[in-house]
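Lecture 7 notes: from sequence to structure.
We start with the chain below.
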Amino acid sequence: MRERAMELKFSKVERKGPITIVTLSRPEVYNALHTDAHFELQKVFDDFSADPEQWIAIVTGAGDKAFCAGNDLKWQAAGGKRGWDKGGFAGLTSRFDCDKPIIAAVNGVAMGGGFEIALACDLIIASENATFALPEPRVGLAALAGGLHRLPRQIGLKRAMGMILTARHVSAKEGLELGFVNEVVPQGEALAAALRWAEMIAKNSPMSIRASKQAIQKGLGVSLEQAIEDQREYPAVKAMVASQDYVEGPKAFSEKRPPKWMGK
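Predicted structure tokens for the same chain:
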């Protein structure tokens, strides 16, 4: 694992081969985030997005109680400045230009902005003690960092309304039943399970993975007919077709050997 040049105060970054592990690290406040943390995480995910050697990211929380408790309300109530960079909450909720997969390893409470971070990821792996909610209405706020829009798109309007309008807490098991959680694992095993998913993804061509993610994201914004018509013009799809991996995959298959992905 390589050392980062940037000094980190509110997060930790590790690299395991092509996998970047980002840990939200403010355990004294259940990993709730304030302005400085948001700007730090913006740089962390900027670096991940730009690094050709890093193919997949996992985001988790420090400790065993919380993934992220959302916005640091005590900081805000004490007069702390609130805001984040163009990438949104934790540098993720408005990051629409990253075609690399991002996995949330939810190891405890994921409340408000914490749940919105998880919803902005491509997969959610949750420990049995994970709890999800958009409780903003209970404190006079609204889930405007993507939760009000992502949750209905991911689980359907009526189910999402049932969570949002009541601000109720949802267990990991119910999250799996509702469809926003991919897998539930015993407490303490969320990160290991997320790494297992990341390693499965890493066996595939990163160019194909990026093309697939971009095609899905762009296609969801238009009709099915338009998505199929436009997909070959999407930048990541064009990059895949022009890549060395596009040649290597069929060649390795015909030669009955594992492919050697270059990611370019």
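Points to note: The chain has a mean pLDDT of 94. DSSP finds eleven helices and ten strands in the chain.
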